Amino acid sequence: MDRPKKRDVLRAVNSMSSLCQNGEKKEGIRAVNSVCSISELTDEDLLSRLLDRPRLKLERKKSYEEMSLSLYDSAHSLDGRSGWDTPVFSMKYSSDLNPMVTEAWEALCRSQVYFRGKPVGTIAAYDHASEEVLNYDQVFVRDFVPSALAFLMKGDPDIVKNFLLKTLHIQGQDKMIDKFKLGDGAMPASFKVLHNPIKKTDTIIADFGESAIGRVAPVDSGFWWIILLRAYTKSTGDHSLAERPECQKGMRLILSLCLSEGFDTFPTLLCADGCSMVDRRMGIYGYPIEIQALFFMALRSALSMLKHDSEGKEFMEKIVKRLHALSFHIRSYFWLDFQQLNDIYRYKTEEYSHTAVNKFNVIPDSIPDWIFDFMPLRGGYFIGNVSPARMDFRWFALGNCIAILSSLATPEQSMAIMDLIEARWEELVGEMPLKICYPAMESHEWRIVTGCDPKNTRWSYHNGGSWPVLLWLLTAASIKTGRPQIARRAIELAEARLLKDGWPEYYDGKSGRFIGKQARKFQTWSIAGYLVAKMMMDDPTHVGMISMEEEKHMKPPLRRSSSWT
Ligand code: GLC
Q1: Is the CB of 142 under 6 A from ligand 1?
Q2: What's the DSSP call for residue 565?
Q3: Please, which of 223, 252, 437, 555 could form a disulfide with 298 given CB 3.0 to 4.6 Å?
């Protein structure tokens, strides 16, 4: 056997090290041979390595396993539950690693939550200094996604599998809010493990929105669950989990909630304010892009995992029809670029009948002033929301990145979104990637729309704040579109501050310069988001577990502006 070069070994350790294997030794360490540093790759190389294929365990080469064993022979062993105060790992060579990556792994490992001895998720924030814990000591479904991706990329899928099964079990519980029962498919926003040291028992309490501020059910949780199940399947090549009857049923229950017929005239999903990552009143009620893009990705993910039995087929037919309508609707009506803005600016109103050009009767006077300066000649994006006589022109990061990753955006639209991010770097990235939305609301508008929310003041938190977790989405979108230099630039910014500042939850200010007013420190998804971004840059094929190629039959029937023709 050829001995691996030390440089290769370190690089592999850097990107997917087995830093927090609690207890038993895991065998899930991937082959190193294919891994090379981003700096050695051209952009074309990166793109061509972006394969939409399962990361099979078979990829792991024996030589690397042997090598890894010698690397990890001093790997820690934790006895059990949380390991809060236990040194998380000890490794030869650890001083040679990128110290920020090493610290991030340590922090991520510390954040693991155990149920009856098994890791089932990661806590939202492990902030000793914060006097108010609120619900940051819980495992949030959406927050766990970047943690899960980090563990999958590292070749440690058990925690992800445990999480998927545990949340599925929670989905099956009775969900009452006062005297009202929530839909069977609803997935929790978060759950907490209660350890009873005397009885030595663990129990779980979950929150489906009944304890959350505003009592809104998290529509995104079920979608993330399906998306994560696909990522797990792609990463491990283990189809047996998704094929289990309980997983098939869980998927069908989630799908029943969002594919049921109602009074809708649009294929998009009608949502309450605060039903996503933006989990308090922020004027995103209606048809927020944040949810529509996740809806689209979850539908496509489910389609690839549903069994072709009679129940599965019924859903598959519904999904195919919905995907078709949804992509047409969003690509046509949510898309905004210079040309389209100019068209809306010149819209006639009060047009009756299906021949109307201004289909939603948008009054041009309602177009906000800022958008005329913000819109570059080259570039475009999916706007925040479209409903009768209402277009929310705000730019939302998650929705646009997910649109790229799921191929809801056409390749041309994806390019245009990246063009816009580059053209409006100061506004959207500034000093800390990435603004959750742009621009912030202020004064009268802020009072009316947020209900005077003191946490969502202008350029803070959900109102134009900068969220480091979004770095992983920007990185994935950059790699998918063959523009890794965008991610590189963003990662550099994050590296200048994140560790030093103690991994804050969010940053405030027009350019994201200040640690958020009420931001938690050691916010797990800020840590995991950074690790995922780094690992994807080291090995762009990782993007395949969270990205999808365009379906040929979904080619856009409408071609109306120069930025995507
Ligand atoms: C805040 C965020 C939400 C996140 C939660 C836990 O409520 O708005 O998106 O899931 O904190 O981190």
Answers
A1: yes
A2: -
A3: 223
Q: Is 416 in the pocket of ligand 1 (CB under 6 A)?
A: no
For residue 460, how far is its CA from the centre of ligand 1 (angstroms)?
A: 14
Question: What type of residue sits at position 424?
Answer: R
pLDDT in tens, 266-303: 999 999 999 999 999 999 999 999 999 999 999 999 99
Instruction: Decide: 467 in ligand 1 pocket, CB within 6 A.
Output: no
Nearest 5 degrees, angle CA 109-CA 115-CA 118?
60
Measured CA distances, 168 to 8, 212, 341 (Å): 39, 20, 44
Average pLDDT of the residues in 37-53: 42
Whose alpha carbon is nearest atom 2 of ligand 1?
Answer: 277
Nearest to 208 by CA among 263, 252, 171: 171
The three-state secondary structure class of 532 is helix
Q: Which residues of 449-466 are buried (b: 16+ CB within 10 A; e: fewer)?
A: bbeebeebbbbbbbbbbb
CA dihedral sign of residues 45, 47, 53, 55? positive
pTM assigned to the model? 0.85
Q: Which atom of ligand 1 approaches the CA of 462 most closely?
A: 8
φ/ψ of 460, rounded to 5, equals -135, 150
Specify the DSSP element, H or E, that contains 80: none
In angstroms, the Cα distances linking 22 to 66, 109, 201, 202 are 20, 9, 20, 18
In ligand 1, the atom with minimum distance to the C-alpha of 136 is: 6
Q: Which pLDDT band holds residue 80 (cuts at 50, 70, 90)?
A: very low
Confidence band (pLDDT; 50, 70, 90) for 353? Answer: confident
- 426-445: pLDDT as tens digits: 999 999 999 999 999 999 99
280 lines ligand 1 (CB under 6 A): no
Task: Check: CB of residue 514 under 8 Å from CB of residue 452.
Answer: no
CA 476-162-253 angle, 5° bins: 80
What gap in Å lies between CA 366 and CA 137, rounded to an integer? 42
Q: What is the β-pairing status of strands 180-181 and 190-196?
A: unpaired
Ligand 1 pocket mutation, candidates 123, 142, 219, 460, criterion most atoms within 8 A of CB: 142
Retrieve residue 8's tokens: 């290769």
Distance 277 CA to ligand 1 centre (A): 6
With the most atoms of ligand 1 within 8 angstroms of its CB, the residue from 192, 279, 291 to mutate is 279
Distance CA 155, CA 535 (A): 12
Determine which residue's CA is closest to atom 7 belonging to ligand 1. Answer: 279
